[in-house]
Amino acid sequence: MIARVHPLTTTRRLAGPFDYALPDAPVGVGSIVRVPFGHQALDGVVVDLADTTDVPPDRLVTPTAVRDDSLPPELVRLALWMADEYCSTPARALSLVLPPRGRPRTELWAARTDAPLDGKRLTDGQRALLGDLPRAAGRDLAALRRLEARGLVAIEPRGRRRAPLTLPRPDPVVVPNAEQQAALDSIARGGAWLLHGVTGSGKTEVYLRAAAAALQRGEGVIVLVPEIALTPQTVGRFQARFGDTVAVLHSALGEGERYDEWRRLRAGEARVAIGPRSAVFAPVRELGLIVIDEEHDASYKHEGDPRYDARHVAEWRVSGDAHGGRARDAHRSGARSGRTLVCGSATPRPEAWHRLARLTLSERVGSRPLPPVQVLDMRGARHPLHPETRRALGSERKAILLLNRRGWSNFLACRACGKAWECPQCDVALVLHRAERAIACHHCGHREPVPERCDACGSPAVARHGAGTERLEAELNAALDVPVFRLDADTTAAKDAVPALLDRFASAPAGLLVGTQMVAKGHDFPDVTLGVVVDADATLRFPDFRAEERTFGLIEQLAGRAGRGPRGGRVLVQTTAPDAATIVAAASHDARGFVAGELERRRALDYPPFADLIRIVCSATQAGAPRAAAGEIAERAAGAPGAAVLGPAPLFRLRGRHRSQVVVKAHDRAAAVAAVRDAVAQAAGRREHRAVAFSVDVDPQ
Length: 701
Ligand code: ADP
Ligand code: ZN
Ligand code: ZN
Known about the structure:
- By secondary structure, the chain is an alpha/beta fold.
- The protein is built from 20 helices and 30 strands.
- Strand 19 and strand 20 (438-440) form a beta hairpin.
- The structure holds adenosine-5'-diphosphate and zinc ion (ZN) (2 copies).
- Adenosine-5'-diphosphate binds next to helix 6.
């Protein structure tokens, strides 16, 4: 027998798999082996077993080692599919689904033997020790060893789980209301579902009960959440209800914890995996249900290679094919069919709305109304806060302010000659961070001291334009008497900074939480009575077809934070576009109307979900080179059936690299992906494009 192995290397040039002779150790699809490769040794994954090989016997080598942990074959198939689907390589895709590195931790465990105690001479200390068994030997090892020598105690190593911190939340037992029950009845039939319900409408209760039903059927469950630090409530409620059968997977875990949690799932000791996007690769046994909470969240898209979308991967795991055909039709046939997908959101993506069967929770539990939204016209305003906002901040004890822009001011410009300070590596403005006395690039991290005067004309008049979270924090501190808590990437770089800051805000009797979109995630602060979107235009003006969707989502999510307690609440939206359809829809919490309008617009423009997008970015340090490569790719991709090609179009220079992009709008996804893969491979193989790097993004966000 022959093992077909993909060595795990990042280069795109090796076209595996390669054949190896089987070692003595048992090996199957999913085994992780160490293989000699050229002059080096690499880890590789067995993706197939075969009877014959073209490799001559004298050149056929054997893996030198086989790892204890292996991948379930389903994850091998999943990785190979991802490699194709996202124009990546099998090795890169396999690297994403690999078990975490580590080894089980053991400890010495002491237990009584059958030997009788009566008549034995024992000190009081020894008797106490014996009465305490069985337990880990710990510091008493020496004393226990003496008892072992007398045959009274047995000491053996035994596996010990490194358990991640648990955050169980109060988990009241509730009776599902009629809409929740209807949703559960539908979900019980299997298939892929969108659970649309405003924040506080009881979606999590539906997930919990659907998970309980799956466990009862003997199935395992995966629950995806946007980010553990920002969604401790959801994780805590799963832990509270299901206890140790929940495994938490996320990057902030220690290596040992991650390893143990993965192994518990693989062994079937834990049946529920919960975590951010990479938890979609959890080795859950008898997988029956995948839940995606806050399905609209941008964090489900991975920005490395392969640029996978956990929502799309979840569909594959549920239906076995990426387009959800089988799962999607299950709700029509009425019979339970295989696995189930439940995607929940208060602000679903138009894609999910269009493609998934919809279940609705139409109001908040207890009929508590959503907070009213007031739109404040900022045209001609001088101050970053509208007078109405300032009045409201003065009268409410606890408020959340959202400003999707970090730093002090967006850009610096010389009043005398007009010079603007830009990143030397990227063609973007440098943002002032006053506390650090630096201007910084938000794309590459470049930093330089704040200029005292213009280096072009010498003028000391350097103007600071626009306001970010840092400046807003300072202004609020100066104007109001309550503590201000700033939550953005600058204040939360340290590990555990996010939960610590949120805890301080939660326990403060009064205060303002100011920050980027992080403040709008699923936090639950019952005493927050005011939400303010300081500059709704910041997201609305973004040159992206998702700008409307994002803006609507942000306003709605913020509204979900305000008025959760008995005192109710309200939301203020500052904008210079008070009549924009998105703002108007958000002001009346009209998700249905918003998505309908958005789908109409997308249909007219031929955007997702009516076409699939593939974005190819070519980059190089020399100007001109990316454009030439992109032109070639555009030409080739245009040959794919049903594909329309946009570009090449220049992108701003990033990290010193000039960039050019091509966007393919596809109506036959598989054909277009294949055509792009081909076009990129051809271009990458040509000498004149040697200096060009290619990145392919299927379903860009
Ligand atoms: P969502 O996930 O949609 O934000 P949750 O499931 O967290 O909503 O529910 C909001 C609150 O209402 C929670 O405190 C939950 O315990 C409670 N709740 C949910 N369903 C019911 C119900 N049927 N009866 C009473 N309380 C409920
Ligand atoms: Zn100047
Ligand atoms: Zn830069």
